[in-house]
Design brief:
Blueprint lengths: L3 E2 L2 H11 L2 E6 L14 E6 L5 E4 L2 E4 L4 E5 L5 E4 L8 E6 L1 H6 L9 H4 L8 E3 L2 H13 L8 H20 L13 H12 L7 H7 L4 H12 L3 H18 L4 H7 L5 H12 L3 H7 L4
Parallel strand pairs: 1-2
Antiparallel strand pairs: 2-8, 3-6, 3-8, 4-5, 4-7, 6-9
Helix pairs in contact: 4-5, 7-8, 9-11
Length: 285
Amino acid sequence: MNIFFGSCSDAINHANETKMYGVYYTEDRTSNTNIHVHECCEVFFCVSGGKNFLINDRVYDVSPGDMFVINQFEPHKISFSTDEMFGRFILQVHPAFLYGNSTEHTDLSRCFYLRTPEVSNKLKISDKDFTYFQESFMELRKSFDYGDDIIKNSIVLQMLVKINSEFAKGYKYIPNMSGHSVISKSVEFINNNLSEQLSLELIAKNSFVSVNQLCRLFKNHLGTTVTKYIISRRITEAKKLLRKGTSVSETALSCGFFDYANFIRTFKNTVGVSPGKYIQINPPE
């Protein structure tokens, strides 16, 4: 059973198609790391390198041994230094696999969905557990003669149990006010005003910087633009509303798209299908 893939998109597609999981490892520093969301939960395990990680409206520092847990509604983007190797394992897990293997006493989805203002996406892994996770991921790369699927399922489930156990220690989110205060303030303002008209001038004014400073900070720290971040957040919110049964037109207005045709076009370019098709694939819960 091949669950190790050469690209993150292949790992995601496999997880979606099988309602299970897919794994990806890379040291590539030129791969596409634009702000994105997908239909899987993600475990991001940093082996080496890293710089900053934007998840929803939070900015985290990244160091070797850091692990991040992300659900399918949290837009995220990693940035990294270009002068050092950036090795990371990425486990894409379909929610159905989490729910299907949870019990009354053990909820494997908890680390992905328990997200209050003080709960962190970031787990700091000990040296001992760093070795455990690295070896576990490498085991998933092997092909076992007999019971291959059962062995790999067992490895993934044990990893998820360990991740949730680590998450239960109660890691707190502490904003980095020294290096990312402007970005943190800006993304918080954007997220609180997604349904409104948002201009670079308005966001910069709220963060007490010039438009040029705002754009430069986003580019330097996150490797993206303010406009791309706004679009990503609006489309993420749109997906949530559509899955709740909100009409396409109401969703467009609620997410700050006052031009209906522009919403349809932007949604399709970002998600890959139109809002109507997305509803067919993901009927309201």
